[in-house]
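Risk mitigation, structural track. In case the binding assays with NAP fail to produce interpretable data, a predicted complex structure has been prepared as a fallback.
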Amino acid sequence: MNVFLTGSTGFLGGELLVELSKRKEIDKIYCFLRAFSEDEANIKLENIFRIHHDYYDEKKIIPILGNLFDEHLTDLLIKNNTITDTDVIIHSAANTSFSKIYDDMVERANMGGLEKILLWAKQLPHLQTFLYIGTATICGKDIKNRLIFEDESPNLKASHLVKYTYTKMHGELIIHRHLTEDKILIARPSIIMGDSRKVVPRSPVILWAAATINQLRLIPADANSMLDMIPVNYAADAIVSLLFANRNHKVYHISSGKAASTTPAKVCSTMEAYFTDLPPFRFKSKLLLNQIKLWAKGKLQPESELYKYPEYLDYWHHVFEDPSAIRILLAGLDPYLGFMELGQVFDNTRLLTDVPSIKQSLPADVYISNCLTFIEKIDLLEGALNP
Ligand SMILES: NC(=O)c1ccc[n+]([C@@H]2O[C@H](COP(=O)([O-])OP(=O)(O)OC[C@H]3O[C@@H](n4cnc5c(N)ncnc54)[C@H](OP(=O)(O)O)[C@@H]3O)[C@@H](O)[C@H]2O)c1
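Fallback model:
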């Protein structure tokens, strides 16, 4: 079996590549990636294996240079005879930014780029499966505080916190326009954060939000809203196992489900036990978010509620020196706080039933203990400026 994988240089994509490379059923993995030269592409791919000392089989892993923004991408792929023997496409590449300033790029990559790949995919002679890495959060922001099932999405009436989830929802619809049902498989991970192994996680994404929350300590969010988060190694293992499983469905949540869900309070309590020199966590109403922003601008009204917590204001002055840093951090954190408030948990019965080798994931408040030394090293401002 030959697999064409996009997004292998990413957080989840890298882990998918390593998992796929271990499978004896797979002969070749064509890695579609952005690079200026074959040499650069090979170095990028080798680095994916080097980070956790995995075995890199250069005969099995073949770089295919390209960019989702390239208007000639479909032609480029069609003319490339090397990849005509592709049996499975795993489309993991996406622009995952939550920041409004990237909305246009997010749409061009996640909808336009996907369509270009599909136009090539649909004329492949042996295509068996197009595995789309979607996201469970396409359900939108109107469903709150409950368990959500795969069949509730895609829903064109859903409203979205960020453009990213809107484009991922449309991605699923675009796939159905181009491919027949028998070729489509959709994996929808929930929120992927960190790694449950004692290794350096592949990416600080989402852990950046945890690190920022850890630094702020006074948090404008509900302490007890349900959170569905999974580690990247679990997500990759589940997705690759799903590819080889006897499946009864076309769409699967890759999630913690109810049993392994967590809450902000639980995750923060794990961080509190480790970072003992910081003030205790306090969760307050989301309304406080604006007050913190105004305080950081020096424009907070004297009677405001935030002044009831002078110990945190003193602490922020001490940690951040320049309060405008807090504004930058909050701008980056804003969408994450929005997702935290939704209390969404994604049912994982389909995955656990159809893929017996995959058990329940560890709850994030448990496995995050393996990421704490890494959290300490995350550059918060850098993460906020490059969302
Ligand atoms: N992380 C999560 O919490 C999460 C949760 C649910 C679903 N997902 C889905 O999982 C998939 C992988 O996410 P991730 O966390 O691995 O994201 P990521 O770390 O941001 O990686 C994105 C990948 O897409 C590639 N890419 C972006 N724009 C491209 C372009 N114009 N042309 C070619 N390649 C491009 C990137 O390549 P470069 O290295 O060149 O930038 C990178 O390899 C996505 O489809 C995402 O929607 C992620």
